Amino acid sequence: MEIENALYIIPTPIGNLEDITQRAATILGKADIIACEDTRTTGKLLKLLEIPHNKMTSLHQHNEAAKANSIVEEIKNGKSVALASDAGTPGISDPGYRIITAAIEAGVKIVPLPGATAFVPALVASGFPNHHFTFFGFPPQKKGRKTFFAMVCSHPFTSILYESPHKLLKSLETIKDTIPDRKLCIAREISKAFEEFVIGTAEECIEVFTNKQPKGEFVIVISMPESK
């Protein structure tokens, strides 16, 4: 397989490293540059795939704006670049948006590979209606959280959001106070050894995670309101 001077968007495993696709592994191996969120995390994947580490350059939320144009220039000068986040698809609640936008504006070819995202297996495993759903990403850290959850809880379709372990219980309390009877699916550690899906009302989920320390990033799936 030959690769072009293009920006390849590479989904990486969200848990089990063996979930990497053959095509993604091939492009990582052949790309001139691997732009990654954390060289230590991507380095573990490259070690498994027996790919040299010297092709990596860091591209994270704090330097993405500054480095996007220089990476695009590398592509325009004939290089191939593989963009990879720590886990999942770049640009989905992960760095990638700015460099992809810069590449589009520069007329650089973009090749997005299909692959891993955390919210899709969580949605499927929930058993909730999924003919219409909305992904809301992470709630705001501080300002705007009340408005965010008011929007999510009033949404007419199945809703999906991400949450960090230290804010999980606070978010579940907000959901309980707004829509106490709706079913939730709380997913964590997807495709890892301690993968878990907890289904119940917000109050029932709070009881589960109050009795054990929440660990790992969480996906919260909120079932759509029942038809009247």
Tell me what you see in this structure.
The protein is 35% helix and 18% strand. It has 228 residues and is an alpha/beta fold. It has a five-stranded parallel sheet with strand order 3-2-4-1-5, with helices on both faces. A five-stranded mixed sheet has the order 6-7-10-8-9, sandwiched between helices. The mean pLDDT is 93.
Poorly predicted spans: none
Strand content: 15-25%
- Mean pLDDT across all amino acids: 93
Q: For the CA atoms, what is the radius of gyration?
A: 19 Å
Please write the string of helix (H) and strand (E) elements.
EHEHEHEHEHEHEHEEHE
Count of helical stretches: 8
N-to-C span: 54 Å
Main sheet record: 5 strands, parallel
Strand order of the largest sheet: 3-2-4-1-5
Number of strands: 10
Q: What percent of residues adopt helix (DSSP H or I)?
A: 25-40%
Q: Which structural class do the helices and strands define? A: alpha/beta
| Overall 3D form | elongated
Summarize the structure.
With 228 residues, the chain is of the alpha/beta class.
Characteristics of this structure?
228 residues, single chain, 35% helix, five-stranded mixed β-sheet
Please render the helix and strand layout as text.
Blueprint: E1 7-10, H1 22-30, E2 33-36, H2 39-49, E3 56-58, H3 64-76, E4 81-84, H4 97-105, E5 110-112, H5 119-126, E6 133-135, H6 145-153, E7 158-163, H7 168-178, E8 184-188, E9 196-200, H8 202-210, E10 218-222
